[in-house]
């Protein structure tokens, strides 16, 4: 027991000491220094890795939790886009660098026990200028189509002020690998490039940069980020079968590893006699089936209530209290008293004495 006494003493004294230290720290806390030295340490087709120094003392980090609030906006926008609070002085994000972007970050101190803001610094701002070249030389109407995970076509229109001898080069990046597109074409006034090396991950965005060059001026580079699932055109299903009961079955085309629940299917049925075409969407068919079932149930319920079918089929059990209210309300269920019935009392049996006389006989 004596050995445990110092432990109990420490357990009571230590929180008091820590609390006093925290109060002293907060009492001496005045203005918080903002971050410094915002630096771009890596740049990959618009994907920037940004670091900074928080400019905070070790004492501040000891008595509080430090968070860094990061925001950005493009030069052609007035709205800052807020990101979540970060625990480390590093941030990575993809930007449309051809628009020019402003970055800002500030320090936030949180109370360790209650996680509330106890102080925050001013913003530190860094501007990233757009690439060199006139804004009107930038490509326009940029778009891409991905075909079945195996190829990608990207097209664009030449900038309005781009010289006629301008040649474009497109780079794309995915899975930390940057490649150069090599199959270029021109069609209907649009330039483009076909990527046929394969798209390796349908769930990872693709980073793209289109550069232009000529003999007379500088062409501003264009940056884009694509979600493959939003730009992909899929091959049709395979092994289509129609069973005798008019059930239609099919398989996914080869090469798809994505969950089948992520796909929606559309069925086209042509009436050969009338040559009418009917389209059936799998999701809409399920939705319509649910609506029809619900409407049918409501109509049947209304009809049953209207015709009192439910009362006939499910006849309720009679309740004596509703039929004989006086029996339960006035006589508390006393049936005998309710019907004024009296039990007859039988009379006691009367005894009538009987005298038996014996006649005497003489003996001879």
UniProtKB/TrEMBL annotation:
Its main location: membrane. Gene3D superfamilies: Immunoglobulins (2.60.40.10). The chain crosses the membrane at residues 282-304. It is found in: Membrane. It is a single-pass type I membrane protein. Keywords: Glycoprotein, Membrane, Receptor, Signal, Transmembrane, Transmembrane helix. Residues 141-229 form the Type I cytokine receptor cytokine-binding domain. This is Type I cytokine receptor cytokine-binding domain-containing protein. It comes from Scyliorhinus torazame. The lineage of its organism: Eukaryota, Metazoa, Chordata, Craniata, Vertebrata.
């Amino acid at each position: 027991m004596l050995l445990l006494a110092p432990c109990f003493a420490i357990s009571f004294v230590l929180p008091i000491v820590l609390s006093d230290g925290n109060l002293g720290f907060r009492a001496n806390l005045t203005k918080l220094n903002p971050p410094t030295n915002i630096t771009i340490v890596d740049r990959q087709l618009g994907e920037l890795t940004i670091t900074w120094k928080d400019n905070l003392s070790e004492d501040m980090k000891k008595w509080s939790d430090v968070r860094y609030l990061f925001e950005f906006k493009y030069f052609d926008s007035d709205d800052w886009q807020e990101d979540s609070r970060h625990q480390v002085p590093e941030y990575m994000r993809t930007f449309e660098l051809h628009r020019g972007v402003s970055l800002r970050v500030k320090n936030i101190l949180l109370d360790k026990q209650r996680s509330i803001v106890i102080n925050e610094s001013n913003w530190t701002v860094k501007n990233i200028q757009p690439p060199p070249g006139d804004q009107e030389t930038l490509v326009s109407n940029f778009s891409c189509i991905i075909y079945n995970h195996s190829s990608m076509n990207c097209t664009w229109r030449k900038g309005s002020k781009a010289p006629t001898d301008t040649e474009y080069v497109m780079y794309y990046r995915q899975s930390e690998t940057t490649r150069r597109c090599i199959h270029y074409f021109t069609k209907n006034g649009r330039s483009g490039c076909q990527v046929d090396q394969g798209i390796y991950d349908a769930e990872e965005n693709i980073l793209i940069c289109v550069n232009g060059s000529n003999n007379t001026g500088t062409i501003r580079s264009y940056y884009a980020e694509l979600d493959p699932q939003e730009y992909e055109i899929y091959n049709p299903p395979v092994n289509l079968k129609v069973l005798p009961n008019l059930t239609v079955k099919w398989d996914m085309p080869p090469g798809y590893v994505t969950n089948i629940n992520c796909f929606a299917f559309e069925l086209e049925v042509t009436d050969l006699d009338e040559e009418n075409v009917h389209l059936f969407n799998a999701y809409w068919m399920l939705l319509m089936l649910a609506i029809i079932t619900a409407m049918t149930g409501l109509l049947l319920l209304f009809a049953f209530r209207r015709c009192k079918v439910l009362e006939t089929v499910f006849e309720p059990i009679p309740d004596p209290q509703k039929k004989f209210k006086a029996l339960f309300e006035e006589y508390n269920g006393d049936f005998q008293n309710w019907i004024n019935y009296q039990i007859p009392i039988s009379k006691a049996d009367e005894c009538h004495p009987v005298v038996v006389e014996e006649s005497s006989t003489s003996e001879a």
